[in-house]
Amino acid sequence: METKASHIDSSKNTLKQSVATAEVLWSTMKTGSEPAFKALYDTYIQDLFLYTSRITNNKELIEDSIQDLFVELWKSRENLPHVKSVKFYLFKRIKRKVIRKLIESRKLPLSRNILEDYDFEIVFSRETELINRQITQEKQQRLLKSLNKLTRRQKEAITLRFFDGLPNTEIAALLAMSPKSVRNLIYRAMITLKDEMSLVLLLSLFEL
Predict the structure, then answer these.
(1) Cα–Cα distance, 86 to 165 (Å, whole number)
(2) Is the backbone of residue 109 left (phi > 0), alpha (psi -120 to 50) or beta?
(3) Taking each helix axis from N to C terminus, what angle separates 168-175 and 86-104, rounded to the nearest 10 degrees?
(4) How far is CA 4 from CA 31, 91, 131, 207, 208, in A?
(5) 113 φ/ψ sector (left φ>0, alpha ψ -120 to 50, else beta)
(6) What is the pLDDT of residues 14-23, one digit of tens each?
(7) Lowest-pLDDT range of 27-31, 32-36, 103-107, 189-193
(8) Is the pLDDT assigned to residue 101 strictly greater than 50?
(9) pLDDT of residue 103
(10) pLDDT confidence of residue 137
(11) For the stretch 171-200, what's the b/e string if a residue is b when 16 or more beta carbons lie within 10 angstroms of its beta carbon?
């Protein structure tokens, strides 16, 4: 029987392999490979959609933003930077793009710091790990209710860490905070979830 420790080690190895594969695809795409570009799109389209759906429920705006992002990537492929984390790079660009579109549509107030004036609502969909692991509807709703009682920054940090698997350094860059502040933010959020009796459920679902 596979132990919990071996399962976690296996998950970490899988994550490392996927990151390495993404880096290869990214480098190959930069040379003009259409198959590599398509593979990157297929790999990250779902992650990008789920991430931005927490910022807005405007499906059309989300789809347009993702489409625009990949068109821009392809057109500027030769000048794209070398990235250690493709997922982080895409998250950073799509977040800024979606928020700018929300401002343009006047669904957000004009602000000097556009990355602070937005809502963040956690949603579960058929594509989430919860469904894939056959978690009961009751447990999903229990966890969802508890998560959405957190502050916006806490919700975003928790989901980026546990749902999206980003390290604190990348979460810090997305939230314009220091890694230490992110650690404290997640710690306070987990204390709140513990009070709501949801921390054990969260950690059991996402063994990161």
Answers:
(1) 13
(2) beta
(3) 20
(4) 41, 30, 21, 9, 12
(5) beta
(6) 444 456 688 9
(7) 103-107
(8) yes
(9) 79
(10) 66
(11) bbbbbebeeebbbebbeebbebbeebebbe
Task: Give the model's pLDDT for residue 72.
Answer: 97
CA gap 194, 203 in Å, rounded: 11
**Residue in 204, 201, 198, 171 with CA at minimum distance from that of residue 186:** 171
And the tokens for 124? 């579960």
**Which tens digits make up the pLDDT trace of 104-158?**
876 555 444 444 545 555 555 544 544 445 556 676 677 777 787 888 889 889 8
Cβ proximity of 103 and 114 under 8 Å:
yes
For residue 31, what are its two tokens? 């040379």
First vs last C-alpha separation in the chain: 20
Average pLDDT value for residue range 40-53: 93
The vertex-121 CA angle with 97 and 84, nearest 5°, equals 50
Burial class (CB in 10 A: 0-12, 13-18, 19+), 66: buried
**What is the DSSP code (8-state) at residue 121?**
-
- Is the backbone of residue 134 left (phi > 0), alpha (psi -120 to 50) or beta? left
Is residue 164 a contact partner of residue 51, using CB atoms and an 8 Å limit?
yes
Domains, the chain, with CATH or none: 11-104 (1.10.1740.10), 129-205 (1.10.10.10)
